[in-house]
Write a structure and sequence with these properties.
Blueprint lengths: L1 E6 L5 H12 L3 E3 H11 L2 H11 L6 H12 L8 E4 L5 H13 L6 E6 L2 H9 L2 E2 L6 E2 L21 H23 L4 E5 L4 H13 L3 H15 L1
Parallel strand pairs: 1-3, 1-4, 2-3, 4-7
Antiparallel strand pairs: 5-6
Helix pairs in contact: 1-8, 2-3, 2-4, 4-5, 6-7
Length: 226
């Protein structure tokens, strides 16, 4: 089960990624976590990425694809994985397609959590986060349930920063989704409602075969019949 998970900031993507990880028993792979792991391990890719991140710039597609290749080649990804935060652009998606082919893998489903912009603004502008484990919480919550840390508001969750973040995300993400729609992989999920309701829809989408898989199965059945 190889999944791509998309959703604008505040869409609840992290919550659904944790649900999918627990249900399928496969790793949740976030680009930020991968970069930090490479840097901490002192790999060649990590050494290349460290000064770029320290300067507040984005790492190149070449470095990111190298890091993704290294991560997807690890044993825990053999049963599958949930990719979160990558690819962000069509060139990255095309490079990832090539990488998946090299590794003998393919994506089973691309899940997109849709939430109206005004709802996202409302959710994010009051959101608090644990500085230790990065779990997010609604306003008026004081401490993290997991480790008791005092919650804080991230600078990029402050009202003046929220709308540009969302607009940039949507501007970059829509073309990537169109890239995967051509393969019949995209499932759009309404990100409003209770967590349980959304989780049921996400799980149903993740468990259903893509259009391409349906065609492959049909082709196989026809071959056997013939």
């Amino acid at each position: 089960m190889n999944l791509l998970l998309y959703g604008a900031p505040g869409s609840g993507k992290g919550t659904q990624a944790n649900m999918l990880r627990g249900h399928f028993g496969i790793p949740h792979i976030a680009t930020g976590d991968m970069l930090r792991a490479e840097i901490q391990a002192g790999t060649e890719l990590g050494r290349q990425a460290q000064p770029i991140l320290a300067a507040g710039r984005y790492v190149s597609d070449e470095i990111m694809i190298g890091i993704v290749r290294h991560r997807l080649s690890e044993p825990d990804c053999q049963p599958g994985f949930i990719m979160d935060g990558f690819p962000r652009t069509v060139p990255q998606a095309e490079a990832l397609d090539d990488l998946m082919g090299d590794l003998g893998k393919r994506f089973d489903r691309v899940i997109y959590l849709m939430v109206p912009v005004e709802d996202l603004l409302h959710r994010l502008s009051g959101r608090l986060v644990c500085p230790v484990c990065q779990r997010t919480y609604p306003p008026a919550t004081e401490a993290c349930d997991a480790d008791g840390s005092t919650l804080v508001q991230r600078d990029d969750d402050k009202p003046e920063a929220v709308r540009p973040r969302i607009e940039i995300y949507l501007e970059k993400t829509v073309p990537v989704l169109d890239h995967y729609r051509g393969e019949g992989l995209v499932s759009e999920i309404d990100g409003r409602g209770t967590i349980d309701e959304i989780s049921r829809q996400v799980l149903a989408a993740a468990s259903s075969p893509s259009n391409g898989e349906v065609a492959r199965r049909a082709g196989g059945a026809e071959s056997k019949t013939a």
